[in-house]
């Protein structure tokens, strides 16, 4: 694959410039002693901590968090797509599920997590439960709304061809909903990292969230930041991965949006 | 082929748009319906296709008065409604997929049709890469691929510029002999209606009026300059004027 540097620079150049400036100012402020390092560690200290703890972080905590994120995401994706499609087909199901979905988003996660710990203990499932709770909502809503918006004119046309509901769903509604669904999935992927981290903060023995909590207890701000850096990197990688899949899937469907 | 008897239809809480209108179309005929906007031409088509049910009266297709008319006629809506994510070929294959026919077996036959419709070179293109005339032809071919003998065409050339429209007319007149279909055609273009049709129905406020077009076939677009054609057009304009 050939990378077009000019285009890349035009797209990300400005962001990169500002980011470098910010990090430089940050480094300067901390090394000057304007902020004590246990409040705000310098970028170089964070980097050193990352290198120092690399074995622990990359071989123990990152895989644990990754497993939680991916399991939670997988279950959310499957469940969310099925639930969204089910709500599209059955008005009764929609009427039942929608209020529950909205309520589930009003519950403060911090408040409900102890209950998850009671139910699932310190096992991986308490973390996966938080992850699902936070990430299934955008998938269900985008699936349901996306399927609902599928043009009536196209539906009528297929009906005159003698199509049944399933054929209309498959040939018109799913392709039309795909861009909306994928936006929801992208959001959910990022939420999954947030969910797993919250789950780990509230009770875990391994994982980046657990690590950052322990280090914050030790006032090792640089190690906390190192874990946060990895978590954010994980979110970005997931987001880019799904963006890439989106591009492949929508290669031709994207015309739909432009037209 | 198609016969409509004493059809009455009203949208909810509104004055009926049709009051006991009757019409019939015979096999192999090309019949146009002319009417002002809002006279219910498109609604009539939705009734015939089965998307709407009449309040009173009967709609018979091939002599059958079936409850479920969906899937009995080929319908081409005003907009081309080509699926933007499908190539021309895949768009044309859509009716076959819906009726679960074997598409692989039909492809050679469809390639031949694509050639006849001047779409052979663009079969792998997407609708947004086509000109207006090509899109319209693709939508028309998709309608033919439903395999139905009766085709309802709702202002198929309405959105085209006059030059493209003229080309489409001569193309359609040239094709008509080998097409072997029955067509019911909505338009508000008098010239188009006379040029293409065997008969014309004028859809007025209260009534439906029939006018026969006695021009011999095969026709070419040249006939619009003949005195017979011009007389016909004047008569039609007078009828429409009287109606209002």
UniProtKB/TrEMBL annotation, chain A:
SUPFAM superfamilies recorded: MetI-like
InterPro entries: MetI-like, MetI-like_sf
Domain ABC transmembrane type-1 per the UniProt entry, residue ranges: 62-242
Keyword NADP: no
Pfam families noted in UniProt: BPD_transp_1
Topology versus the membrane: Multi-pass membrane protein
Keyword terms: Cell membrane, Membrane, Transmembrane, Transmembrane helix, Transport
UniProt-listed GO biological process terms: transmembrane transport
Listed CDD domains: TM_PBP2
Cellular compartments annotated: Cell membrane
Spans traversing the lipid bilayer: 12-30, 64-84, 96-122, 128-147, 188-211, 223-245
Principal cellular location given in the protein's record: membrane
GO cellular component assignments: plasma membrane
Superkingdom to which the source organism belongs: Bacteria
Assigned protein family: Belongs to the binding-protein-dependent transport system permease family.
Full protein name: ABC transporter permease
Naturally occurring in which organism (per UniProt): Neobacillus novalis
UniProt lineage: Bacteria, Bacillati, Bacillota, Bacilli, Bacillales
Automatic annotation (TrEMBL), chain B:
Record-linked SUPFAM superfamilies: P-loop containing nucleoside triphosphate hydrolases
Family annotation (InterPro entries): AAA+_ATPase, ABC_transporter-like_ATP-bd, ABC_transporter-like_CS, ABC_transporter_ATP-bind, P-loop_NTPase
SMART domains: AAA (SM00382)
Alphabetic keyword roster: ATP-binding, Nucleotide-binding, Transport
Annotated ABC transporter domain residues: 2-230
One MF term in the entry's GO annotations: ATP binding
Domain of life: Bacteria
Name assigned to this protein: ABC transporter ATP-binding protein
The organism's taxonomic lineage, starting at the top: Bacteria, Bacillati, Bacillota, Bacilli, Bacillales
């Amino acid at each position: 694959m050939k990378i077009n540097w000019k285009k890349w620079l035009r797209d990300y150049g400005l962001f990169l410039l500002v980011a470098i400036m910010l990090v430089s100012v940050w480094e300067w402020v901390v090394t000057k002693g304007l902020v004590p390092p246990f409040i705000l560690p310098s970028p170089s200290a964070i980097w050193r901590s990352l290198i120092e703890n690399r074995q622990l972080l990359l071989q123990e905590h990152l895989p644990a968090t990754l497993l939680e994120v991916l399991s939670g995401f997988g279950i959310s994706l499957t469940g969310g797509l099925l639930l969204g499609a089910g709500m599209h087909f059955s008005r009764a199901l929609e009427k039942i599920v929608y209020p529950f979905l909205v309520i589930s988003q009003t519950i403060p996660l911090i408040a409900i997590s102890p209950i998850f710990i009671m139910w699932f203990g310190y096992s991986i499932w308490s973390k996966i439960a938080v992850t699902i709770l936070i990430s299934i909502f955008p998938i269900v809503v985008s699936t349901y709304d996306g399927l609902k918006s599928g043009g009536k004119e196209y539906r009528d046309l297929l009906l005159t061809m003698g199509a049944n509901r399933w054929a209309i769903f498959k040939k018109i509604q799913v392709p039309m909903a795909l861009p909306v669904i994928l936006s929801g999935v992208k959001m959910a992927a990022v939420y999954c990292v947030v969910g797993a981290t919250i789950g780990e903060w509230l009770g875990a023995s391994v994982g980046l969230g657990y690590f950052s909590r322990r280090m914050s207890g030790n006032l090792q701000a640089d190690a906390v930041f190192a874990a946060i850096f990895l978590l954010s990197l994980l979110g970005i990688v997931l987001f880019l991965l799904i963006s890439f899949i989106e591009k492949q899937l929508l290669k031709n469907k994207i015309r739909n949006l432009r037209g | 082929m198609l016969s409509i008897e004493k059809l009455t239809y009203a949208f909810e809480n509104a004055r009926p748009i049709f009051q006991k209108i009757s019409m019939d179309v015979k096999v192999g005929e090309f019949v146009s319906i002319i009417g002002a906007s809002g006279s219910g031409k498109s609604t009539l088509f939705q009734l015939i296709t089965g998307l709407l049910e009449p309040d009173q009266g009967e709609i018979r297709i091939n002599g059958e008065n079936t409850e479920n008319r969906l899937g009995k006629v080929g319908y081409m809506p005003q907009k081309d409604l080509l699926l933007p994510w499908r190539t021309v070929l895949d768009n044309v294959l859509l009716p076959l997929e819906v009726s679960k026919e074997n598409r692989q077996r039909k492809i050679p036959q469809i390639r031949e049709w694509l050639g006849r419709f001047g779409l052979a070179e663009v079969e792998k293109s997407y609708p947004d890469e086509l000109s207006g005339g090509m899109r319209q032809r693709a939508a028309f071919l998709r309608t033919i691929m439903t395999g139905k003998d009766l085709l309802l065409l709702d202002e198929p050339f309405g959105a085209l510029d006059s030059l493209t429209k003229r080309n489409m007319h001569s193309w359609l007149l040239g094709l008509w002999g080998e097409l072997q279909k029955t067509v019911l055609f909505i338009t508000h273009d008098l010239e188009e209606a006379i040029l293409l049709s065997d008969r014309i129905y004028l859809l007025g406020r209260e009534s439906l009026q029939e006018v026969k077009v006695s021009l011999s076939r095969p026709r070419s677009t040249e006939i619009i300059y003949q005195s017979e054609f011009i007389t016909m057009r004047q008569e039609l304009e007078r009828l429409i004027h009287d109606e209002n």
